[in-house]
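Predict the 3D structure for this chain.
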Amino acid sequence: MREPVLTFTEQGIFCPAGGFHIDPWRPVDRALITHGHADHARPGHRRYLATEAATPVIRHRLGEISIDTIRYGETRRIGGATVSFHPAGHIPGSAQVRVEVGGEVWVVSGDYKVAPDGLSEPFEPLRCHAFVSECTFGLPVFKWDDEARVRVALNDWWAANAAQGRASILGAYSLGKAQRLLAMLDAGTGPILTHGAVENTNEVLRAQGYALPGTLRVTPDLDPKAHPGALVVAPPSALGTPWARRFGPASTGFASGWMRLRGVRRRRAADRGFVISDHADWDGLQQAIEATGAEKIFVTHGYTDIFARWLTSRGFDAQVVPTEFGSDEDDSAEEAA
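Done. Predicted structure below.
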C-alpha cells in the first residue's frame, strides 16, 4: 500500500516524500507556512518557506529566521513532492499549500475564506484528491453579512459617536482583521488612531503596497482631546484597560464572527458587535469543499466532530484531525466555549 501524501504527527502535518511539515507547531527541519498568525507561523524551525506576500510579516513577528519565498502558483520540487502555494483569502499573503506526489494531490487550506474582502488575495479553488480544511465556524448558525452592509453599519456607528462627542474604540486582531476594517472606513469622518501592535503591522503591509488609509499611532504623549471623534483600532486585549479609558467617553465595538452569538458579545462587554470574520462561514466551507472535488476531507480546529458527521452524511470520507491551530490571536473556538 502506498504511503499517504501527508501524515499527521506530533510535530504537525508532514509530507514523507518531501521531508517537510506544513504549519508545524513544534520545531522541525523544514516548515512550509501558510500565513503569519502565531498559531501557524511559530518560532524554532530551521528553515521556512512562505509566499512573498506573507514573508515580511512573518519576519517582523519571528525575527531573524532562515526563510525562502515562493510566488503564488509557482511550483517547486522538494524531495519527491511538488508543491505550490495558492491564495487562501484569509489575510494578506495567506496561502493554501498544494502537494502532489506520484500524481496524487492533497491540499492544506490553512485558514481561509471564500468571499473576497478587497484587501487579501482572493481565495483560489483547487482540485485535489484530499483536502485538509479548517472548520472554525462549522455550524449552520454562522453565516456572514454582506461586506457592504457591514461597511455601512461600521461607518454609521463611528459617525454617530463622533456627532455625540464620543470616541469609537474598535477591537480587532492586529494582523488581518484590523487592516480589513481600516480599508472599510470612511476616513472623512474623523482621525483614525491605532494601537502600536496594529500600527506595526500596518507599516509592514503598507511597505508591500497594500492600500490602507492614513492612521496615527497612539503614543504615551498623544493627547486624545486633540483628536475629537476619533476611531481607535486596538487588539481585543486592550478593550476596557487604562489604555482605552484614556480616550474618555467612548463607545466600544468588537469585530468577529463570534458576534453572531449573543453570549459572546455580552462577555466582551462591547456596545456594538460587528459580524465579520476572516474565516469561511457555513456556506463558504461547503462551497470550498465542493469545489475541490475531493472525496477525502480532513477537518481541523473548530466544530470538527459536528462538521465531519455532516460531511459523512453527504457522502464524503471525512475524518477529524486534532491540531494545535486556532488557539492564538485569531478567531478561536475558545470564544464560543
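The radius of gyration is 20 Å.
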